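Response to reviewer comment R2.3. The reviewers asked that we include at least one raw input/output pair. We reproduce the pair for OTU domain-containing protein here without editing.
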Amino acid sequence: MSSNLDSAKPSKGARRREKKAKEEAAREQRIQEEQSNLVSDRMLENEKVENKLEPLGLTIQEIKPDGHCLYRAVENQLLLHSKGTAQYSYQDLRQMTAKYMREHADDFLPFFLAEGKAETGSDPSESFEKYCQEIESTAAWGGQLELGALTHCLKKHIVVYSGSFPDVEMGQEYKSGSGGNSAGDASIRLSFHRHAYGLGEHYNSVIPTESS
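Raw output as returned:
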């Protein structure tokens, strides 16, 4: 009698397979939920940005999400300002950013440290130099430090619209009507997206609606 009952019980291998299948199903469900949340967050964020831009006659120009998005977005803006005549490539902008940050290390280092970008236990100056090397030679993502350098490199007023955070303005001294030179008359307009892609934060270019 007991042998018949024993034979009816699932084997250890079957139990392991069943457990693994349940874990895999739970994992797939979590992935689907995360993707659903990401899509929902992205749509909500984009809607908020577009609601800001529409009354201004502006819209979003999508930029390739390859790690160079900040520099590509600025490149796109410069092309727009110069009627399609290339001024600087995104690679040029990376080189310029790194050069400016090195030359003004005393201005950037405190913010670099405050953002926790220095390697633990390393010399801050060495970490900063390594960071600058990554800016000019890799696809490292750019943020406010790099924008701070670009606004002075290009002598341009920069506006960053966001659906997740307050809008940011840099280089007010280069804004049209603020005493800046003619090179700064056209503002660089970008949009910041926290939920654009699963890989992280993203920048797009902001252009006049009639140009889209």
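Residues 179-184 have pLDDT under 50 and may be disordered. Helices lie at 2-8, 12-53, 69-81, 90-103, 105-114, 124-137, 144-153. Further pairs are available on request from the corresponding author.
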